[in-house]
Amino acid sequence: MAKTTQQRQVDGRLWIFLGVLAIRWWDCSMSERASLVPPSDVPRFATGVVLIAGVVALAHLAAAAVTDGYWFDEAYMLAIGRHHLDWGSVDQPPLTPMVALLADTIGRGSSLVLRLPAVLATAAAVVVAALIARELGGDRRAQVLTAGVQATAVFVTLYGHWLTPTTLEPLQWLVLVWLLVRWQRVRDDRLLLVLGVVAGIAAQTKFQVLLLCAVLLLSVAAVGPRALLTRPMLWVGALAGAAITAPTLVWQAVNGWPQLRMGPVVAAESEFLYFGRPGVAVLLILLAGIAGVVLGGYGLARLVRTPDHRYLGVTTLLLYGFFVATAGRPTYIGGLYGVLAAAGAVGLMHRREAGQVRWRWAAWPAYVLSGLVAVAVLVGSVPVVAPLAGRGIADTATAAHSSLTPAQQARTAIVGQSYIISAYLDVYADLPPAYGLNRAYGWFPPPVESQDGALYVGSDPDELAPYFADVRRLADPAAATTGVWLLTGRSQPWETIWERGRGLTVS
């Protein structure tokens, strides 16, 4: 059908609009190129940063070596790695369980070997944060100040020696930002390919990086540098990252996207643990540490006012608002503390160069206080992973299992009430692999049909009792770490029990 005169006029106006838009985009790209910092003008790398990273590594290594017990999320990662490794689970991509399995293969049962990757990632994050400051034009003093914030952040000192996705994520986010700001300076498009690969690997650690990438792209489109979006290598990198992430996304799709159901669960936990959105809003800031709050706050203000890197400030504000609005965990922006500190340290450098030295003396007391708080948090984190609770649960379950005859043991599945109990049984007890209806365990295969009984470990067996003819207590929770019940006479297939009873909320 031929177009009318009015339709041709509309089409012509549309093409004119697109042409003007393309010209403005090209002008923006050329002006951005003209403002590049020559590679020779980049400050020297501060060797003091390596010293700070070394101290951080030794401190966290000492904390990791003090106890041979497992933080419950470490036990969870290790249990998934040993018994249920797949391309995904309901609340975890597979990378951390893979790392846990590799460490456990090298040093079977050694919590110190298990934590080495976490310690190395924590120390490396200090170096990468300083490199971001360097790319922003920061001299050696600015790099050291940035490294100090990354090293003393409360979030880092609390989690930096435990092998969990939360510990590995900050390094990955910092590397992504470093690649971006370096690309802005040198315009080497190969960095964008690496960026996509790193994003894909990070998505195999925690899915929050997908949100980070989406918000970064929106911020760049809104406030620049828009030339980034015209680079073909950016989209090639995006395809590479998508290819790396694809197996985990396929697993999620096949299993009904259970990760999406974690949002309300996390919000409910935040209400209980952190007093909801107000608590999350405060903790997202305070976990940066004393020096991080001061320097990072100043850095955020500078980023928002700096055209070349405004997108980083906008990204931080948008993510902060999103995680507060959704009542996420207060650790979710921990990967940006070093970025904000780098911007703040460079801002202080410019003030110093301009002769504005008022309040200069306040920096070092802030760092001393931040360091003292970091040491206190690091020391306080050690008894949290004391093995008494986990081993107590495992010993109680082992004693109850030993009281059964060999024939009963073969026909009885071991079921934990929560994923924590199931994980403790898997890593501490010399028993057959544990089952459970909670979190990832609820989506692992159920017991085989030849097992018509269950040894239930938890506070009470109410979730399984309706499916069994007889429930008998073997260990009293008042006299032991947790209770144990023997359930016999199963009336429904395990598959039916699993489909009806599994859930994500930890009781």
Question: Mind sketching the topology for me?
Answer:
Layout: H1 5-34, H2 47-66, H3 72-83, H4 95-106, H5 111-135, H6 140-152, H7 154-159, H8 165-186, H9 190-203, H10 208-223, H11 232-254, H12 262-274, H13 276-286, H14 290-305, H15 310-325, H16 337-353, H17 363-381, H18 388-402, H19 406-410, E1 412-416, H20 419-428, E2 435-436, E3 453-458, E4 468-475, E5 483-490, H21 494-501
Helix pairs in contact: 2-5, 2-6, 3-4, 3-20, 4-5, 5-6, 5-8, 5-16, 6-14, 6-16, 6-17, 8-9, 9-11, 10-15, 12-13, 13-15, 14-15, 14-16, 14-17, 18-20
Average pLDDT number? 90
Count of separate DSSP helical elements: 21
**Strand-residue proportion:** 5-15%
* Unreliable spans: 6-11, 13-37
State the total count of DSSP E strands: 5
Q: For the largest beta sheet, what order do the strands appear in spatially?
A: 2-1-3-5-4
Largest sheet: 5 strands, mixed
Describe what this molecule looks like in 3D.
This protein is mainly alpha-helical and 507 residues long. It folds into 2 domains: 41-385, no CATH class; 388-501. It is 64% helix and 6% strand. The chain has helices at residues 5-34, 47-66, 72-83, 95-106, 111-135, 140-152, 154-159, 165-186, 190-203, 208-223, 232-254, 262-274, 276-286, 290-305, 310-325, 337-353, 363-381, 388-402, 406-410, 419-428, 494-501, and strands at 412-416, 435-436, 453-458, 468-475, 483-490. The chain has a 5-stranded mixed β-sheet with strand order 2-1-3-5-4. Helix 5 packs antiparallel against helix 6.
